[in-house]
């Protein structure tokens, strides 16, 4: 393999594929990046056991010139650090028969030992039977509003994933860790499908979806989503991510159909008040939320440290006054992700999940399981 490539183009590609390099891997081949030079361009590939990420650099005048095709796996950390440190100029990459990669600039020559690419995980050749197109910003927002509610516990199985419920023209995302639950629906367009009936639901690891959201950046165009029997792919003009499904039964969650109390508040006002209450909520993060007419009281107490009570105005209210205890940290994450100036909170007692959703008729819905404390138990 022998190529000439612009430093900025290669550095940009490395920033992308490094997202699939695990710092905990014990496999030397998985700690590397596969470089493949063909007559069409240069492909960089990185891999984890359940994810493969590719970045394609097409042949461009003065940016990429393929003089000899070939492939090798280079150590990601050292190769990336070298390329990042080089000046913004053309770089020559040349691979010898012993898989030593020579990196040459006008002033310097670096040599790093590569690995034979035969043991590197192969890119899936699955035929993606269903293809969809969706706005990058729509999918990015949906992932950020939903994925945080998935479990981060080790061995959490399907609870560490996001459920995709697919139809021809929409995608519903759901996530839960058993305490909180998030759901939303976005529109997308079907490109092709061999599916005659309903699409089976699929589960994708939340961590992988958050990487998709980060890679999308502020793109204004669309991306393609492909679905096969055991994998999904997300692809844009330059990069493609293949994700293996999580296996298992995703729990069924029902949104309470009725409520005893409903209040509407300014999102920023509630978010700031919750942030302050958390400061004195201790390790348990418990805060009490009490409504009385058009006023809400947020209170918290850290044993041996102190306590706080803060009042905020309720924009609109319906039903009975209420008192409930919640995990303030989880509540803050929900509010921060809601993406609306106003939000609605619906309560059905001290044992039923609290329903939190935007006031603008968005399909986004959050549930948060209350915490039983001495004060709230007396009311049950």
Automatic annotation (TrEMBL):
Q: Tell me the superkingdom of the source.
A: Bacteria
UniProt xrefs under SUPFAM superfamilies: DNA clamp
Q: Which organism is it from?
A: Paenibacillus suaedae
Q: Which GO terms describe its biological process?
A: DNA strand elongation involved in DNA replication
Q: Which GO terms describe its molecular function?
A: 3'-5' exonuclease activity; DNA binding; DNA-directed DNA polymerase activity
Ranges for the DNA polymerase III beta sliding clamp central domain? 138-251
Q: Which Gene3D superfamilies match?
A: 3.70.10.10, DNA Polymerase III, subunit A, domain 2 (3.10.150.10)
The GO cellular component terms are: cytoplasm; DNA polymerase III complex
Q: Which CDD domains match?
A: beta_clamp (cd00140)
Q: What does this protein do?
A: Confers DNA tethering and processivity to DNA polymerases and other proteins. Acts as a clamp, forming a ring around DNA (a reaction catalyzed by the clamp-loading complex) which diffuses in an ATP-independent manner freely and bidirectionally along dsDNA. Initially characterized for its ability to contact the catalytic subunit of DNA polymerase III (Pol III), a complex, multichain enzyme responsible for most of the replicative synthesis in bacteria; Pol III exhibits 3'-5' exonuclease proofreading activity.
- Keywords for the protein's UniProt record, in alphabetical order: Cytoplasm, DNA replication, DNA-binding, DNA-directed DNA polymerase, Nucleotidyltransferase, Transferase
Segments forming domain DNA polymerase III beta sliding clamp N-terminal: 1-124
**Name recorded for this polypeptide:** Beta sliding clamp
Q: Which family does it belong to?
A: Belongs to the beta sliding clamp family.
Q: Where is the DNA polymerase III beta sliding clamp C-terminal domain?
A: 255-372
Q: Where in the cell is it found?
A: Cytoplasm
């Amino acid at each position: 393999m022998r190529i000439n490539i612009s430093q900025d183009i290669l550095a940009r590609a490395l920033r992308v594929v490094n997202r699939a390099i695990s710092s905990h891997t014990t496999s030397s081949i998985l700690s590397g990046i596969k470089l493949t030079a063909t007559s069409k361009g240069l492909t960089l590939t990185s891999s984890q056991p359940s994810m493969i990420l590719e970045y394609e650099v097409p042949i461009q005048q003065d940016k990429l010139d393929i003089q000899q095709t070939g492939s090798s796996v280079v150590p990601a950390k050292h190769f990336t650090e070298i390329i990042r440190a080089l000046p913004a100029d053309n770089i020559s990459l040349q691979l010898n028969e012993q898989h030593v990669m020579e990196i040459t600039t006008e002033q310097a020559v670096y040599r790093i030992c590569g690995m034979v690419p035969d043991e590197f995980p192969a890119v899936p050749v699955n035929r993606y039977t269903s293809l969809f197109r969706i706005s990058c910003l729509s999918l990015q927002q949906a992932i950020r509003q939903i994925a945080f509610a998935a479990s981060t516990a080790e061995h959490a199985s399907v609870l560490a994933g996001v459920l995709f419920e697919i139809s021809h023209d929409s995608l519903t995302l759901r996530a839960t860790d058993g305490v909180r639950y998030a759901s939303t629906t976005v529109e997308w367009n079907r490109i092709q499908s061999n599916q005659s009936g309903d699409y089976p639901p699929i589960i994708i690891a939340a961590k992988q979806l958050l990487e998709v959201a980060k890679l999308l950046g502020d793109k204004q165009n669309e991306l393609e989503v492909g679905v096969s029997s055991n994998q999904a792919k997300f692809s844009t003009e330059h990069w493609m991510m293949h994700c293996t499904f999580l296996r298992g039964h995703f729990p069924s969650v029902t949104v309470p159909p009725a409520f005893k109390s409903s209040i509407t508040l300014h999102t920023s006002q509630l978010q700031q008040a919750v942030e302050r209450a958390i400061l004195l909520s201790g390790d348990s993060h418990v805060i009490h939320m009490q409504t009385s007419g058009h006023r809400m009281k947020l209170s918290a107490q850290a044993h041996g440290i102190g306590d706080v009570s803060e009042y905020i105005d309720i924009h609109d209210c319906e039903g009975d006054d209420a008192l409930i205890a919640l995990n303030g940290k989880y509540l803050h994450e929900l509010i921060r992700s809601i993406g609306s100036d106003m939000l609605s909170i619906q309560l059905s007692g001290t044992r039923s999940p609290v329903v939190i959703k935007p006031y603008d008729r968005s399909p986004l819905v959050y549930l948060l399981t209350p915490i039983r404390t001495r004060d709230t138990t007396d009311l049950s």
